[in-house]
Write a structure and sequence with these properties.
alpha/beta; five-stranded parallel β-sheet; 16 helices; 294 residues
């Protein structure tokens, strides 16, 4: 039988300054759907305990909690104990901690669920976007949300990802020329969209231009860099959707588009554009692929 600790005992340990490592091992879906956690807790995937167990300080008591103190935390505590660690699970889990009125903090991994809103599709239609462009925008939003869902250990704003991806090509209601990003941003601002969203609309051209590139292309001289991970996910999804839907590259499925992404961009000018743009997209691909694998 695995050893356990109750909520009162854990609170006393935390107040005493004892050396403990507090581990949140809720399943991925549970932790991303929860707005709160116990202060100081680090989340680790319960299914990968063998991979991260060596990171736990052996001189610390490891206290493990899940949603209700059931099989998930008990199994992890047992695995850590078998490896020679002083490990216990929290009786009743996070549920008992909350019910006891004990302090909680915001969970940075919380993902507020988001689905594409038909009211936003109506905005695109009323703006004059073609059915073809709306279909593309919707696919980019769906792909961006799907990619973001694979990145488990980063705080991500799913609503921002979904809406910014959906609106990124709004300017194509007026023109498909290079300035559709700038025009779309102006249209978005007039519609009351947030600056974060209109920034993506303006910056998505060539995946985040430098000021020098913008000048060479006749665009306003400014910084178009994509500083937020959410922005880079959207732009990566946009390029992937092009590859998946345009039938230029013989691929069997969407997974193959990601697997062959580097080769495709390096060999097909339409997608790589030039050395600077190609390198930028490849960096996004490598960053996002690595994050999704963690």
């Amino acid at each position: 039988m695995n050893k356990y600790i109750n909520t009162k005992e854990l609170a006393q340990l935390m107040d005493s300054g004892s050396k403990i490592t507090l581990l949140d091992v809720r399943r991925e879906a549970d932790v991303m759907a929860s707005e709160s956690k116990i202060n100081g807790a680090e989340w680790h995937s319960p299914g990968l305990v063998d991979a991260w167990a060596g990171d736990i300080a052996r001189e610390h008591k490891a206290v493990i909690y899940c949603v209700k103190g059931g099989q998930v935390s008990q199994s992890v505590a047992g695995s850590l104990s078998d490896k020679g660690l002083d490990a216990v699970f929290l009786e009743g889990g996070l549920k008992a901690w909350k019910e006891g009125g004990l302090p909680i903090v915001d969970n940075p991994l919380f993902r507020k669920p988001f689905t594409i809103q038909e009211s936003d599709i109506d905005i695109l239609k009323k703006a004059g976007m073609s059915d073809e462009d709306i279909i593309h925008s919707r696919k980019v939003a769906e792909k961006a949300l799907e990619i973001a869902d694979r990145i488990k250990q980063q705080p991500l704003d799913m609503e921002f990802i979904g809406r910014a991806a959906l609106f990124h090509d709004l300017g194509k209601a007026r023109t498909h020329a290079m300035e559709h990003g700038r025009i779309g941003a102006e249209m978005g601002a007039s519609l009351g969209l947030s600056k974060a969203i209109t920034d993506v609309m303006e910056k998505h051209i060539r995946g985040g231009l430098t000021a020098l590139e913008a000048e060479e292309l006749g665009l306003p001289l400014k910084d178009y860099a994509l500083y937020r991970l959410e922005e880079r996910i959207i732009i990566y999804a946009d390029r992937l959707v092009d590859i998946i839907t345009e039938d230029i590259v013989p691929i069997k499925n969407e997974k193959e588009a990601e697997e062959q992404f580097e080769q495709i961009l390096s060999t097909i000018l339409k997608y790589g554009k030039n050395d600077i743009t190609c390198k930028r997209y490849l960096n996004y691909h490598r960053e996002i692929t690595e994050l999704a694998a963690q």
